[in-house]
Design brief:
Two copies of one chain form a homodimer. Chain A has seven helices and 13 strands. The first copy, chain A, is an alpha/beta fold. Chain A has a seven-stranded mixed sheet with strand order 3-4-2-1-5-6-7, sandwiched between helices. Chain A has a six-stranded mixed sheet with strand order 9-8-10-13-12-11.
């Protein structure tokens, strides 16, 4: 795939990430010659707003759109790049059809991320890994992407020894319906009505749920495991020590992470050095001024592209430690934007 | 002070913690001969429901109460125990009047916590420290109490080497008006109205604010500093390594904490040993069953007395590490209950 103007299919186009993919392609002017929106049969015929290159309707007219088609194995004829965000089982089901059509699959699900022949790519961190692909490139987990962009910038200073991270993850990380459930439940709570609990294991309104994805035998959750193994793969640090705790919080959009990093070297990395490295790093925005009470907050950064870092300070509890806080829009950098950036690497 | 039936004054009786103190005394049948509710002049004459020993009205009639009196320097004549929860400046202002009256001050503010002649007490952890008091006993910070109850239980197994903790703190930790602001703002957000932001530095509805209390020169916040120095004082471990990140989340009541502990010894502490120690520890309730998706959650534990612990698992990122999650009602164990427990130690 090295066409300058590829045909792009979006599988799962009506979902939270799929819609964001269309928006990101439009905003970045992704040079598609055609965009195909694929979803389940019940969405077929629905028109999704899309004003970017490859839209149906007149480009730039304010009336551009893509019309949803039912996804079948024959949907990928003529497609060059297929962006998948319809769940792991759908990705597994269609992988062969996509590859048979000669298209490259950029998959946002967890289906293939840890396969040894599938690159797991964050363009700011390991763009060169794309070169080794065999038809599938995986997009990492949302909370992983946000973490590795920052860790990679810091690891340029001194190798990392250990990372402890606790997350504050938004409802929309579980999809558009989950975000709607937070809205609905919050209304119900305020009205004193019974709560509708369907998308999360427990009430999410005015609550924190210390579980994301299923439990594994060692007492960790799959989300925590993903953050560990994906970070190691992306950073090419198979033995990096990572301790993760993943928590869902009643926020609509944007994940936050509280991070304590220990560096390998005996020589301390100063806060000033870390700040300079982060300020220079692509995809990172430092937002950190205690005097004006400025730091990143998930409720105020929806729709942004960077990984925001604040609360940068020494961690005096360990010889060579740094503590900080990061926020990123998990639907954009954590999913749609990262996938489109991978597609851009293919051009 | 060793009267079996003391006269108890509650300074700040109309606040979130003061009202909880009355409720805790009532529920525990604290054997007061009289309870005096003190507050600012504008609350004078207001009747607060209180059905415990020392109430006005007929005890046990369902119509018991205490009538609020304006607090003055002469309010403490005849008082044996004065529970203060009206802010640090009020505690400083009245300390002398309380001591001159021969009463013992149990102070929930941060005014005297780190004074060398003031015991800082969590009854499950360091009850013997009460003996050394000179008229003032301090109640620790809410997030500290919750942490030390668990750390103390684990330190009985093997001494602690380092603790990394990120908090998820409820709005009511900033007082009743702050909790009301979360309600109001959430309603405003859902209605698309402008948000009223008065009690927090930023929007709290559907947001996380990584700042509690003011910033210090080293980039930490005063809440983070309190957790470090208070934990060391209570555990009698002046050099214990602690890294804290304190975050306000849109939860009404109950603080949660994500904690990674490293033990001193080379021999690992097993999860089973840690679980047994926690199950045996006074004031701790283990709520931890991945099979039934059971773990403590702040939205569901308001009004409880224990420190709840779940998500207990090995932390494989370090030689001898344990990770877990805790939740406690910061108005009860984190404030009112702990203060009343200290009063009980005095009887």
């Amino acid at each position: 795939m090295s066409k300058a103007n590829p045909v792009v299919a979006i599988a799962g186009a009506t979902g939270a990430v799929g819609r964001e993919m269309l928006l990101v392609m439009e905003q970045r002017g992704f040079p598609a010659s055609q965009v195909k929106a694929l979803a389940s049969g019940r969405s077929a015929g629905r028109r999704l707003t899309y004003e970017g290159p490859g839209a149906s309707g007149i480009y730039g007219s304010g009336e551009g759109y893509v019309e949803v088609e039912e996804m079948t194995r024959s949907s990928f004829a003529g497609v060059d790049i297929a962006l998948f965000s319809a769940g792991a089982s759908v990705s597994r089901e269609y992988r062969e059809a996509v590859l048979d059509a000669g298209a490259v699959m950029i998959d946002n699900s967890s289906a293939f991320r840890m396969d040894s022949d599938v690159p797991l790519v964050v363009p700011e961190v390991n763009p060169d890994d794309v070169a080794g692909h065999n038809g599938v490139i995986a997009n990492p987990n949302c909370s992983t992407i946000q973490l590795v962009v920052v860790l990679n910038a810091l690891a340029q200073l001194v190798p990392l020894r250990r990372v402890v991270c606790s997350t504050y993850q938004a409802a929309s990380g579980a999809g558009a319906a989950a975000m709607e459930e937070l809205y609905t439940q919050t209304r119900q709570f305020l009205e004193g009505e019974p709560l509708t609990i369907e998308r999360f294991a427990h009430q999410i309104a005015f609550n924190c749920i210390p579980q994301i994805d299923v439990f594994l035998d060692d007492g960790s959750t799959k989300e925590e495991w993903k953050m560990v193994v994906e970070t190691r793969k992306i950073l090419h640090e198979p033995a990096l020590a990572l301790a993760m705790t993943c928590v869902r919080v009643p926020v609509l959009r944007c994940h936050a992470e509280s991070i304590n990093v220990e560096f390998e070297a005996q020589l301390p990395v100063s806060v000033a050095e870390a700040r300079a490295a982060l300020e220079a790093a692509p995809g990172v925005a430092v937002m950190d001024d205690p005097l004006t009470l400025e730091y990143p907050m998930p409720g105020l950064l929806a729709g942004t592209d960077d990984v925001y870092v604040g609360r940068l300070r020494a961690d005096p509890s360990v010889q060579n430690g740094l503590a900080f806080w990061s926020v990123a829009d998990q639907l954009r950098k954590g999913a749609a934007l990262n996938a489109v950036q991978i597609a851009e690497l293919l051009l």
